[in-house]
Specification:
CATH architecture of the largest domain: Alpha-Beta Barrel
CATH class of the largest domain: Alpha Beta
Bound molecules: S-adenosyl-L-homocysteine, iron/sulfur cluster
Largest sheet: 10 strands, mixed
Number of helices: 12
Radius of gyration: 21 Å
Distance between the termini: 21 Å
Number of domains: 2
Shape: elongated
Strand order of the largest sheet: 1-2-3-4-7-8-9-10-11-12
Order of helices and strands: HHHEEEEEHEHEHEHEHHHEHEHE
CATH topology of the largest domain: TIM Barrel
């Protein structure tokens, strides 16, 4: 047993072979509070604590190895049980919204050409408890996390089972109790995964990294588009929306001179037809080894003017945490194995 996280009180009762079921609930609530040292679980009898120490020496499998702060973002570097490294970020908004940005994989198999995580390739999937433990670590920064976005390292829909298990843990009323509409899965556009989400109809929000609404260009910069081209993606989004009834976010990472032309804006407006969505414009965050450039302010303005004239609703996400490389697409770790 590597970790006691991502388990319900009932599961804990079984795993820990507890005689009294209320003790499982007590241990569960200590874990939720981030207490992983059995001796600090003061309402648990010493005999039970000693037993736990002997049979389950570690309640948590990962640890924080580095903390970096920049204005409204704090990035944590987390070491996993096999010494792999992942990152997670806490973002604070003006209106006191505290968002945990969580990783789902070590690296990513999707290889999008503008993204740092993509350059790592896929090292491995995270287990459910490793996804949940990021919340434990982020809560040492602030206990009142209100939102979760699966926008850290990795493609969440490429690690579907553990992702779903972590989501139900985040949602559990005795636990973190985060409502589904406050959680967002961000995907590069894995159509089968989106369809599975539609079937499950959890009420969770969806964000899609569109980046380009031109099929050929998108295939060049995002390999996933070669398997699931734009028309298929749009079809999947329409069904998702039909079931879910909520606005979808289209993330549009702006690459200077690549997807910021008048033509690109027109294609984007075409793609949004028939979808209830908002486009989230994210100026590309520079990554040394990649050859793109961030758009200039006047380029961004020209593009947003174009979107205004086409009646496309958008938000311009100002880059948070760029100086600590905790911004979108800047997350990558070198593996020490
Ligand atoms: N794999 C998922 C979630 C993680 S990526 C996905 O692709 O949606 C999170 C967001 O960062 C995506 O919207 C992606 O388009 C964006 N992104 C990736 N690299 C970036 C970069 N260098 N600058 C700005 N945004 C980037
Ligand atoms: Fe993976 Fe998302 Fe980066 Fe693409 S943008 S490589 S899917 S993490």
């Amino acid at each position: 047993m590597k970790s006691l996280y991502a388990k319900s009180p009932a599961e804990l009762e079984k795993i820990l072979k507890l005689e009294k079921s209320y003790q499982a609930k007590q241990i569960y609530s200590w874990l939720i509070k981030g207490v992983t040292d059995y001796d600090k679980m003061t309402n648990i009898p010493k005999k039970v604590r000693d037993d736990l120490k002997e049979h389950f020496p570690k309640a948590i499998s990962s640890k924080i190895v580095k903390v970096q702060k920049a204005d409204s973002a704090t990035k944590l570097l987390i070491e996993l049980y096999d010494e792999s490294l992942i990152e997670c970020v806490m973002l604070t908004d003006g209106d006191n919204r505290k968002t945990a940005c969580i990783s789902s994989q070590v690296g990513c198999a999707m290889g999008c050409s503008f993204c740092k995580t993509g350059t790592m390739g896929l090292v491995r999937n995270l287990e459910d408890f490793e996804i949940v433990e990021q919340m434990v670590h982020l809560r040492t920064l602030a206990e009142d996390i209100t939102h979760i976005v699966f926008m850290g390292m990795g493609e969440p829909l490429h690690n579907f089972g553990p992702l779903m298990s972590a989501i139900s843990e985040f949602h559990r009323s005795e636990g973190y109790n985060i409502s589904m509409r406050r959680m967002t899965i961000s995907t590069s556009g894995l159509v089968p995964g989106i369809n599975k989400l539609t079937e499950l109809n959890l009420g969770i929000r969806l964000a899609v990294s569109l980046v380009s609404a031109n099929n050929e260009l998108r295939s060049n910069i995002m390999k996933v588009n070669r398997s699931y081209p734009l028309p298929e993606l749009k079809k999947a989004l329409i069904s998702f929306q039909h079931t879910m009834g909520k606005r979808i976010t289209l993330e549009y990472c702006m690459l200077s001179g690549v997807n910021t032309t008048k033509e690109s804006a027109k294609e984007l407006s075409q793609f949004t037809k028939g979808l209830m969505c908002v486009v989230n414009l994210i100026p590309w965050n520079p990554i040394d080894e990649l050859e793109y450039e961030s758009p200039t302010e006047s380029e961004i303005r020209a593009f947003t003017r174009e979107l205004d004239s086409l009646n496309v609703s958008y938000t311009l996400r100002m880059t948070k945490g760029r100086s600590i490389s905790g911004a979108c697409g800047q997350l990558a770790t070198s593996t020490r194995r």
